[in-house]
Write a structure and sequence with these properties.
Length: 468
């Protein structure tokens, strides 16, 4: 059994569009057929090698296939993220639509694809003046050692420094402008400190300990270096100040602190929107840890760990961290933290809140329960109260204003609710809700068709909440 002949057309199309998941050994109708065990090793090796081969996938994009056993049958799962670059296979660019892969040959369509990615994935911005001497040379041996510890036969180990940069996607060609060069991702991952500060003067990660001195801090670490060393410095800060617990996972004893917070630290670094001047923060309180970083959001409000679709913010940086063994596959941070939270803190749930500033709240052992209501609803209540009072006519009575505030809170937690759903939750008629929506035209909007659409907070309302 070998890799399907059109596999890389699908991989290429998914990289160029919104990503996706490929399951080898599962039929189109969902039947688990399994992959022959004798062929698994070669298929996985071929997949890794071919995804690194520019003759097969240009630009290369290393993939990390996972093997699963379902009722005694083996399947291979390939998670393909959306990429910040335009990819070819067999010198042809593919895009994806309705579970199909199609060729993109017209120059204007290629330009549209490149422009869409450029505007969304800022990690791919090209800096033509960047040279190899602008990168920390001592990082390359460290990278090789980390790769070797995870995969002694990895193809990158045979490359020189520049070849490694090029094949990893840190050097690219822009199909729209015809520029070529190293990218923002390259500078962030490997750049000298002065180079990073020149390109992004606002770049920093602020780690704070606030237990005794809540207004300022008991300890502070300001990190302004490349992302590879920034991760190490942040983990050192975590290990100094956070309690640890050991846990038996199967027959292996693991550190819960390391397992949870390596994911939190990695997510803070690899999913940040670096062109935004807002600093990334990691704050330790007596009862919780809160992180915040600028974000390119794909939704608003709390994330449900049991029902969410992970979306890469910086695919190249994420791929590099996965290769170094400092992160797992996309979305694993939320799932791992959720799964181990009670074992670590003994209570409560972690909260992950999507928005222009992405926030994470992790309860600590010995503190009170932390809920989303504690950390979000107070802010929402104050902001909504102020905004409703500013926006709604003064003649509206207090009962109606309270209902309007409740509607905003409901839409903040559950975007897309319909008139009948809001009426049920508030125990009023649909006519009443329709009148309420008319009063809040600057705060809420209807999105979608009449049959499938729903109400969402407007950008104005969301900006008020984010500024609070």
């Amino acid at each position: 059994m070998a890799l399907p002949g059109n596999l890389f057309e699908t991989i290429c199309a998914m990289l160029n569009r919104d990503g996706g998941d490929i399951l080898l050994g599962v039929g189109d109708n969902g039947t688990v057929k399994g992959v022959e065990e004798i062929a698994i090793s070669k298929m996985v090796t071929d997949l890794v090698n071919l995804s690194n081969n520019p003759l097969k996938l240009d630009s290369p994009f290393i993939l990390f296939p996972q093997l699963y056993d379902i009722d005694g049958r083996k399947i291979i799962h390939i998670q393909v993220p959306a990429s910040s670059q335009v990819h070819k296979t067999g010198k042809i660019i593919y895009d994806r639509s309705n579970d199909g892969d199609f060729k993109v040959e017209q120059p204007h369509r290629i330009a549209e694809m490149a422009n869409r990615k450029r505007n969304h994935y800022t990690e791919g911005i090209i800096y033509p003046a960047l040279r190899m001497e602008d990168f920390k040379q001592e990082l390359f041996p460290k990278i090789r050692n980390l790769i070797r510890s995870n995969n002694p036969a990895h193809p990158w180990l045979a490359l020189d420094d520049r070849q490694m940069m090029e094949i990893s996607g840190l050097w690219k060609k822009d199909y729209l402008s015809a520029q070529e060069g190293f990218t923002l991702a390259a500078a962030l991952l490997l750049g000298k400190d002065e180079v990073i500060q020149h390109i992004i003067p606002h770049f920093k990660i602020d780690a704070l300990l606030r237990i005794n001195n809540i207004e300022r801090y008991d300890d502070r670490l300001k990190i302004q270096t490349n992302l590879i060393e920034a991760y190490e410095l942040l983990m050192d800060f975590i290990n100094r100040h956070l309690p640890d617990k050991f846990y038996l996972l199967g027959d292996q004893r693991i550190s819960l602190r390391a397992t949870i917070f390596r994911e939190i630290a990695a997510n803070l670094i690899i999913h940040r929107e670096y062109t935004n001047a807002a600093p990334a923060t990691f704050v330790i309180y007596s009862d919780r840890v809160e992180t915040a970083n600028a974000n390119n959001p794909h939704g608003e409000g709390p994330i449900d760990p049991s029902n969410f679709v992970p979306f890469p913010k910086n695919p190249l940086i994420a791929k590099f961290f996965i290769l170094l063994g400092r992160a797992e596959e996309l979305g694993s941070g939320i799932l791992t933290t959720t799964r181990l939270m009670k074992e670590y803190a003994g209570r409560g749930k972690a909260a992950f809140i999507e928005g222009e500033i992405f926030k994470t709240i992790i309860p600590l052992p010995g503190g009170k329960d932390i809920t989303i209501d504690d950390t979000v609803n107070d802010t929402v209540n104050d902001t909504v109260n102020d905004t409703v009072n500013d926006t709604v006519n003064d003649t509206v009575n207090d009962t109606i204003k309270k209902r309007l505030i409740t509607i905003i809170l409901l839409l903040h937690r559950n975007p897309g609710l319909r008139i009948n759903e809001l009426a049920d939750k508030l125990n009023v008629s649909e006519v009443t809700i329709k009148r309420d929506m008319q009063k809040m035209r600057s705060l809420v909007e209807y999105v979608g068709s009449q049959k499938t659409g729903g109400y969402f907070l407007t950008h104005y309302m969301l900006s008020k909440l984010n500024k609070k």
